[in-house]
Every structure is written in C-alpha cells, then in structure tokens.
Amino acid sequence: MTTILNRYAQLHSQDVDCVQHYISQVFCPHNLTLTDTRQRLNARLYLRQGQDVAYGRLRYGAQVQIEPQPLDDFYLLQIPLSGQEQIHTAHGRFSSTSRLASIISPTQAFSMEHSLEADKLFVRIGRQGLERHYQDYFAQPVRGPLEFQPSIPLDAPDGASLRRLLDWQFAEVSDGSLFDQPRQVRQFEQTLIYALFELHQHNQPVHKTAAALPYVVRRALDFMESQAGQSITIGDIAQAAGVSVRSLYAGFREHLGVAPMARLKQMRLEAARHHLLNGGLSVTDVALACGFTHLGQFSADYRRSYGERPSETLSGLSRSRACV
C-alpha cells in the first residue's frame, strides 16, 4: 500500500503556508492549523488527474485541523490507509478509518481533523461530470443538489464492493498502463461513478427500474457487434439502444444473464479467436483490432476462456499448416 501513486508526487513540504496554498489549488480554499505546536508538518501529496476524476494520496505527517469552504464543484471521497480523520458535517461527527470511508458533497459544510498517523487515499469527482453520469444512468435529471450520505462502512457488503473496485483502480492508476490511454480513462471514471450510485445512499429518488425489452437488448447487441473493435462505454451502448444505463443492465441480466460489458468482452474474445485461428495477424494486432488495449489482460482473459494463450492458438495454426 505504501507505494500507491508514488510515481505521481506533487508536493513535499514542511511549511504550513506552502502546504495550505498548494492544497487549496487542488481542493478548495481552507485554513490549515497544527493542533499540536510541538509537531512539525511533513506533508506529501500525490495526484493523478483524469478527465472528470482525479486519484490522489495525502498525508500531513502531523496532527492538523482543516476548516474548508464548501467544495462547490466537486465530490471528495476519502479512505484512510492508516490513522484516522475526524469528519464534522451537518449529519454529525464520525471518525473515518480504513474501515469507514467518507464522501463529502459539494454543498455540504464540513471540517476535518487528521491524526498524526493519517495517510489517506482520495478521489476528487467533478460535479458536472457526476451529474452528467447520473442523467445517463437513470435517464432523468438531478433534482436539486445531489448529496451522498457522508460515511461509507467498508465492512458492509456494498462498501466492501466499492473498496475492491477502488483498490483495483488505485493499483492500475499507480503502476498499470490502462490509465495512460484517454479512452480507458472514461471507462474508469464511469465505472466508479455508476458504482457509487448503486452502492451508496444518496438523496435522489430511486424508482424501480424496468428491464429493457428483448428488442432493445437486441438493438444493443447489434451496436456492440458493429463497434466491438472500438473503445465504447456502457453509456454509448445505452444511448444506441435508447434506454438508461440502469435499464440496460436490468435487461441484460433478465434476458441474457450477463452484464452488458461482460457480453462485449465475450464478443471481443470470440472475434480474437476467429482471427487467431485464421492467421495472418500477430497476437498484438489481433488484440488491438478486437478492442483490447491491455495485452496482458487480453492474454489472461483469453486463456481463461479457451484454456490456452493467444500465442498458442496462433502457433497451433502454424504447426497445422506446416504438416500439410
């Protein structure tokens, strides 16, 4: 865990004014004070910016109190790796730890106190992007300011699912190659935001979602097949089918027993196997032509589905031709 985002260091300072100024640019204007003047600040900030979402890590190295202005244009999701931070909101006060994350909404007034040992991950989600994803997901506009319940129990089933997703995303953002590609960044952000809508309580009305009808699912499948080699998201598929993302998920579960993006991966793997069995292209060319941008993940998925590596399929074809 201690290596998360180490390649993306932004700040290392022991000067309170410098730290306050720099972090105000990343988040919002705030007052930063040492609660124990015998301690010395040793702040470190790591940050990797996407499109609507930024992934970061922050520790102050001292016990500090933070009095921020409202966030206004972004949501702040925070998960301590060690130590704790006291969060004060209109909903009350709670101690955020590695088992209890927090999410602060743009219109919520709040303050925080970091313990000496506090070292936290954070995700900064742009308000406009999140509200746009809400409309795509539910096929309805946001009704008033969208606010999440501030505390997220990570040892409850929904919170544990969210934590597993975040663990994978932070690992990939830190050391993987997927986040290097702009078209993959969109999918990262969309997956996280949709998970928040499904897994965590918010103040928007949630109605029972009607599953997409079979002809709508067929329309989605036709679009997926025609675009299987392109970088498409679940939002693109739902738009092509003419339904909300949530309705599309429900329709695929009811009629096919599989999620839309899982079915898209199956389509891509089937197309890749067809190309490999027929020869003429390298494994890399086949993967890219079929919409796979992470070659290691493609090889692992292919082997899981067909019991052999893509190169073995291709070399098997070569051997069979040599014997003719």
Automatic annotation (TrEMBL):
Residues 218-316 form the HTH araC/xylS-type domain. InterPro entries: AraC-bd_2 (IPR035418), AraC_XylS_family_regulators (IPR050204), Homeodomain-like_sf (IPR009057), HTH_AraC (IPR018060). It comes from the Bacteria. GO terms for molecular function: DNA-binding transcription factor activity; sequence-specific DNA binding. Keywords: DNA-binding, Transcription, Transcription regulation. SMART domains: HTH_ARAC (SM00342). Pfam families: AraC_binding_2, HTH_18. PANTHER family: HTH-TYPE DNA-BINDING TRANSCRIPTIONAL ACTIVATOR EUTR, HTH-TYPE TRANSCRIPTIONAL ACTIVATOR RHAS-RELATED. This is AraC family transcriptional regulator. It comes from Alcaligenes pakistanensis.
